[in-house]
Amino acid sequence: MVSISVLQRHPDDGWALADPMKVGAPMRRVLLKLADAILPPNPRLETTLEDVTRHALICLRYMPRSSALLFLLAMRVLNWSPLWRLRGFRPLTSLTSDAARRQLVSASQSRWLPVRLLMYGPLGLFMSSYFDQDYVHRELGYAPVPFITGRIELRRAWVEGQEPGADQEIRHLPVRAP
Amino acid sequence: MTILAHRDYRKLEEHQAEIVVIGTGAGGAVVGAELAEAGRDVLFLEEGGYHPTSSFNPYLTESLPRLYRDAGGTIIMGRPPIPFAEGRCVGGSTVVNGGMAWRPPETVLADWERITRQPDLGLKAMEPLLERVEERIHAKPQHASSIGEDSRLLEEGARRLGWDYAHNRRAQDRCVGSNQCLTGCPTGAKQSTLLSYMPRALSTGARCLTEVRAQRLWIERGRCVGVFGKAINPRTREEDVDVRVRAKAVVVACGAIQTPFLLLGHRVGRPSKQLGKNFLCHPNAKVIAIYPDPIYAWQGVSQGGQIREFRNEGILMAENAVPPGTTAAQIPFLGQEALDLMKRYDSMVMTGVLVEDSHSGTIARRFGGPMARYSITRYDHARFLRGVQHLATLHFEMGAERVILPFSNFHIARHVDELAGIERSQGSRSTIELFTVHMMGTCRMGSRPSHSVVNLSGEVWDLPGCYVADASLFPTAVGVNPQVTIMALATRVAQRLQVPN
Q: What are phi and psi of A60, to 5 degrees?
């Protein structure tokens, strides 16, 4: 018997996802502002910023506590980056989204490695969460589920004795060479 | 089949077994299955959860916390810092790797034989172990129906440039190229230890305690006699259940970072002072090309082959399509610019340059966790620059519009002539962006206690009853995907493991 997947977003295999790490309101404001500045302005749902922040806080639960606390401290430092990078007097949370984004773009292109390093965490957490949503997949034209479902069926037939033929090969437009 | 999870535990869990194996990845599952099939009473401890094939899906927000250590948020400190990923679930990293099944190169085995001054790690002695592993994981080339356009494009590019390209052998049984290797194979084709070795072990009576983190070894009168652990509450991630397992032998197979971390909590590895040293990691640099037409790299097997032309320089190149979430975290843009680029996701071909280590790092215990330190050398850096230049050249040869480079100060090349600027602009090792998935070498195997951490049976020189069976054993970098080599060495450990009466 071949075990096959039903590709549910929240699979019911008896395993519980952790609750989000608890943080205070100021820290939550910092994370929401960072998410707002990092993510594309569209497409978004009303809950997008809350959702990606919640995902980030869930991921922090899976890290060693010291790493999670260090991450949160780094986000506070990043929030005040306009001040210590001598680019303004106010933290990111007091800036508009566009202004905050300009600050973060500049930080991510800094010639100083420790400054760029501060951006690794929020970029990884927020981007991976945002670009994992169905409404963003639609925007990209990315539809993995129908493709995988077809492949699961193909393998099922193969296990039952029907080897895939040339018409089952994955072929799209030929790549144009210069 | 006995697989227990946190919900099954009482306040104090006490177990006995003949052999306790910590970890269920390429090392642990193999040792445990070989021993269980030989009639031994085996108990596995696994820090992650049990996730069957039917639970796998293409969503990162689910798979990162479920299948990856620290939800994928782990980093090796050094110049440059290197993010790394490893599995934390039943099956370990074999659940989330590409399933490549390359044998260790003969030159590497000859080196190991020379370093250890024993034939045990030479080609002749390893051959039957490699054959046994390959048979059990169904190591074979891909069927044509599983190959995607990105693999064909790389192969064609290599052919045009006159480079050697080799089709990958993989641990797979009728793979149809769903391209979900990194989030758990949803078709059941990839023969991770979740599907190959663990069922063998469990069907012959082995037990598996999941969601248990091994805290320290149980040592009595100088001999390892068990493990103390803590079960992790899946909701709060608090360690709230004590777990004690008493055994006649303990096999530590937690990977090249967690294994030395566990052993460093004890006074072992002293004769050679090599425990936690010799950390190797095959760093990778990502090169993403954008083509005028859709390639749909996310359809078809991840890494159909490798460019091996520069293997003698320690450089490998391959394609490796990753989901949009992972790609977006690696591109040099934020906001609308990031979305505009990501709208070309279907036209992207994600490739990487792997460089074999010329130098090693260390693992230490810091702030209650393992701290990995590793910096690339100038020689490695120069090879990365060459590798990136070669790969970008191939993409332009194949008609790429632009190529995203792994440098913080030189992100995009729009023409092949711009690649000459790589050498000029990349004087510093801090500007290259790397990642890794192959950690090795921190409890090196050897024939002399003064030069190694474990003997050629995998037993820690100064802790009888404690064996190591994972990539930590490698005396040097293996230069190819390490899964088969780990499995072969783990088979050897199982064959030689001595249990006192």
A: -60, -30
